[in-house]
Amino acid sequence: MLNSVNTNQNLKKKNKMQRGSMIFYVALMAFPVIQFILFYIVVNLKSFGYAFMEQEKISDTQIVWRMTFENFARWFTDKSEFQALLSASKMSLVYYGINLLVSIPLGLLFSYYIFKKMPASTFFRVFLFIPSIIPAAAFALTYKIVLNEVTPLLFGHTDLRFDTQPLLAILFYNLYVSFGTSVLMYANKMFDIPPEIVEAATLDGATGIKEFWYVVLPLTFPTLSVFLITGVATIFTNQYNLFLLANDTVEFRSLGYFLYVRAGKTVGHEQDIPPVAALGLILTAIAVPLTYLVKYCLEKFGPKEE
Fold first, then answer.
1. How many Å apart are CA 296 and CA 160, to the nearest integer?
2. pLDDT category of residue 17 using cuts at 50, 70 and 90
């Protein structure tokens, strides 16, 4: 009889703990779901509708909206619109390619340098994080002033002026700005690596580049994969500080900045909103499956922590 009572009590405690765990899980998952609904679905609901609508003028005083798919087709049938979109796409791929091939490898190497506590590693950690704590407008203005006014005095020529090599200056600026956060995240992940693992690898002869490649990189890969996955979305959204640096120079427009400029021109002109809304859906339709594809490939073929 006593055993039966204890069993019932234990069962009730177990059920109570399970209910508590479920409530906690639901409450935890409710926040991102509600955030997605409010800040993506609700905010963009009207834009979704605009993408399939077109104004039609019936008379001088009467305008009606009708459903159409022309807003999507015009980005591919209108030659000037297609060329502008293609040019912005090429620039976005250039910016993303530089980030993928230069920024990420250098970020990992600098993080490893900091992780090994080599000379001046603390200085580099602070120096690379400076752009993250200074307002973007102030930092961009300072950057242009240094290039245009300081470098000619230091080096005696104008080859480094912003106007001389604007694209190179934009690429370098964005590389430096993106460095701080990535280096900080990579380095923090490296510092979480148990020292005994590194010591065991050292005893087995894994030093220098071998230690980085076979020990540190696989254990840092979960953090790296986050940057690689989210980086795919930036192809379609990142404006690369072009408003601050290039003052809307058309040939440097990324997809994110192109969409920003076109959306800005619709203010006060409701009839111009549908094509821009349609472009947003087109880019989303490309970005979502591409992001999941990259995620799948990284999980399947990337190095494992084990």
1. 42
2. confident
Nearest one of 24, 9, 221 to 111, comparing CA atoms: 221
- Residues whose CB is less than 8 angstroms from the CB of residue 171 and which lie 6 or more positions away in sequence, other chains included: 95, 98
Residue type, 154: L
- Look up residue 271 and give its DSSP letter: G
Cα atoms in the Cβ-side hemisphere of radius 13 Å centred on 191: 11
What is the three-class DSSP state of 206?
A: coil
Contact between residue 35 and residue 255 where contact means Cβ atoms under 8 Å apart: no
Give the type of residue at 87: S
The pair of three-digit structure tokens given for residue 167, joined into one six-digit string: 């694209």
pLDDT digits (tens, 9 = 90+) for 235-294: 999 999 998 898 777 789 999 999 999 998 888 888 889 999 999 999 999 999 999 999
Spatial distance between the Cα atoms of 160 and 252, rounded to a whole number of angstroms: 18
Nearest alpha-carbon partner for 244 in 187, 173, 154: 173
The yes-or-no verdict on residue 2 having pLDDT over 50 is no
Q: How distant, in Å, are the alpha carbons of 55, 56, 68, 257 from that of 46?
A: 15, 18, 15, 21
Structure tokens at 131: 């752009």
Rounded to the nearest angstrom, the gap between the alpha carbon of residue 232 and the centroid of all alpha carbons in its chain is 7
Question: What radius of gyration, in Å, describes the C-alpha atoms of the chain?
Answer: 26
CB 181 within 8 A of CB 132: yes
Instruction: Give ∠ CA 70-74-76 in degrees, rounded to 5.
Output: 130
10 Å CB burial of residue 293 (0-12, 13-18, 19+) is exposed
CA distance 217 to 223: 10
